[in-house]
Amino acid sequence: MNIIKSSFLIQFKNSFIPSQKHMPNRRYDLDWLRVLVFGLLIFYHIGMLYVENWGFHIKSQYQSQVLESFMLIIEPWRMPILWLISGIAMRFVLAKVSVYRFISIKSLRLLLPLLVGILVIIPPQLFIEMTYKGDLNLSYWQFLHAFYSNNSLVFSKYQSGIWPHIDVNHLWYLRSLWQFSLALVILLPLLNSRWVSRSLNWLFKQNAFIAIFISIMPVFIIQITITESKDLSRDALGFLFLIYGYLIGWEPLFWQKLKGTIKPLLIISTLCFTLFIGFYNLVYLNKDLDSEFLYASGMMVYSIFRILGALTVLALTYKFLNINSKKLSYFNDAVYPFYILHQTLIIVIGYYLSQQNLGPIIEPILIIFLTVAGCFIGYEVIRRVEFLRPCFGLNMTKKYNPKLVTFAYTACALSLIPLAIEILL
């Protein structure tokens, strides 16, 4: 009986560990892609100041509907790519560490920057937004006093987030990534099962169109059924793509086929983008046109472009960017600090520059330059100040007394418990 029990426990424990067969030492193409997509996010959010039909915290006086069509080149696949990379990265980590260690790493690396972000980095965004909308007539220091108070009526028009009037804003990715990490752990016995492995092996041996069609349908279903909540739809799609990323991991059949289909992917993705732009401008923006068939058709094209756009970018980087360099190491560490800082810089800089009537060329150029410069300066400070590094998702560089390390981890864990509870509930 003890032998059977012991065997069962071993099998159960092993079900949380992904197969290491064909596992590469490092995928530099995914590191480069992560850096590039987060870099693209900075320009995307600057573009949000200028698009005419998309909501943002503040707006420039120089707005354009044409810009929306250019931004739609990347909008359908930019977040799916990040979730795919996150899923693949989680598979790498889980192949090397225990589930307990995985949860500990993710909790510290995601929740601590999130807590610092919502308490320190996000407040200037809310101050500028409320000032811009005419809902605030306070100095920044008076605003902060109200912000950190529980019973302030200043924020009555603004939604509660994690806590009353304290929301994650652009840092929702960190919150969702932590939630998805916990959900993934629960699903590991299924995702690592022989049944799933055999099913994937069969699928990757089929015609590429069959595999793509199967992957598209859940995306399409989510987009046409979960319409009452943008956040719910976004999270459902994000978790789906994270699962996709975990499953493709380092499966050789998938990556071999992907590398050999760059040309067809580019052609079909271009066609889908053209159709989607037509749908967006002629149907989606036309408030007088109410056709469920046209809407469903547009969402199908959108779903196809989400998958094909992501696959095209994955294929290109896999073929051309699987190389290591010192620059990659530098920018890989810079990703989280840049991500955490960039939107606050955009909103603060954009608001004050928009008061100067600089014109539709000089203004965005200055915002781009000052935002990127601010991110670099912020990162250079963060990477050199040891206690700031974990606050922005970076590992410590020095070795400390084990007792001090234990105390620090315990203190961090206790401080993060209220945040974790609010996110989960």
UniProtKB/TrEMBL annotation:
Keyword rRNA processing: no
Regions crossing the membrane: 32-51, 81-103, 110-128, 172-191, 203-224, 236-253, 265-283, 295-318, 330-353, 365-382, 403-421
UniProt keywords, alphabetically: Acyltransferase, Hydrolase, Membrane, Transferase, Transmembrane, Transmembrane helix
Domain Acyltransferase: 28-379
A GO molecular-function annotation: hydrolase activity
PANTHER family named in the record: BLR4337 PROTEIN, GLUCANS BIOSYNTHESIS PROTEIN C
Name recorded for this polypeptide: Peptidoglycan/LPS O-acetylase OafA/YrhL, contains acyltransferase and SGNH-hydrolase domains
Native source organism of the sequence: Pseudoalteromonas denitrificans DSM 6059
